[in-house]
Amino acid sequence: MAALALRVCEQRASQAEEIVATLKRQLQLITSQATNSAGTAQTSQEVVRLQDENNSLTKQVEALKQRLCYLEIMNGKKQVQLPKVSSTATSSNKNDASPPKAAKTVEQSPTNPDNKGKPDQKKEKKQKKAEAETKKNAKNSKPIDISRLNLKIGHIVSVKKHPDADSLYVEEVNVGEESPRTIVSGLVRHIPIEGMQDRLAIFCCNLKPAKMRGILSQGMIMCASSPEKVEIINPPEGCVPGDRVVVEEYPGEPDTLLNPKKKIFEQIQPDLRTNDECIATYKGCKWTVKGKGICKAPTMAGFNIK
Q1: Domain for residue 103, yes or no?
Q2: Same domain membership, residue 198 and residue 279
Q3: How many CB atoms lie within 10 A of CB 12?
Q4: For 282, phi and psi rounded to 5 degrees?
Q5: Which residues contact 286 (CB under 8 A, 6 or more apart)?
Q6: Between 213 and which of 115, 137, 165, 226 could a Cys-Cys bridge form, CB atoms 3.0 to 4.6 Å apart?
Q7: Maximum CA pair distance of the chain?
Q8: CA geometry: angle at 105 spanning 100 and 109, to 5°?
Q9: Average confidence (pLDDT) per 10 residues, the chain, 306 residues
Q10: Domain residues for 13?
Q11: What is the pLDDT of residue 3?
């Protein structure tokens, strides 16, 4: 029943549109004739009649269209508003066979198993690169002060003279790591071998390892120093290998490895000195091991620490 009514409405709408078109043509013709003949009362009346009839038919057409839409909806037909036809629409139809760009994007998304995780890998690489750059910038922005040095308490397990250098000792030092470090020190002329053996000292542990006469040195023992005399800086009592030496006024975590090109140690070293009480200081602030005390030289006051 609804289908029949739908067809009737469609026919009526089509007929009404044809009538409206015919009336418009007649109206234009009559208006033209009325203009040419200076118009008569009869022609004017005819024009008014046709205009009224045209308006009435237009309203009927609109009503029939609305009725048609209603019946189509009741029959399950979806109403879609048609876009305006333009010249660009015609030309775009030629490319309908090719897949849209949006579809390509979906096909290449990480959820597509055919991509074998490549987009994820690229994204992960970019993320890692950004994180590395951030860490690098953060490291470069750190202030250059004693907090950058990894100063640790170390126990000299064994010591011997360097086989190829009369002025160098080669020490095996426990600094609280899995295995001892080999450290080469130029102290032969200043400290007897007995004064080196089996003692605690302070070592800088994040200098870049360097070969000294063929033996790789992995750190440096910290000493008060002058051309005539050198004394090892003593840690406070109760220290154990691995304890960190800090300056409380300059908090911060040490670098994993000092970059020799940046010459960070060289910039810090001039401010490392013993004070009038032989206490090791940085810019006048004391070296300490937290909870255990201060670090100092045996007798040398007012000397650089190297």
Answers
A1: no
A2: yes
A3: 16
A4: -125, 115
A5: 247, 275, 279, 280, 294, 295
A6: 165
A7: 140
A8: 150
A9: 63 75 77 60 72 80 75 66 50 47 45 54 80 66 92 98 95 97 96 96 97 96 96 97 97 94 95 98 97 97 96
A10: 2-35+48-74
A11: 61
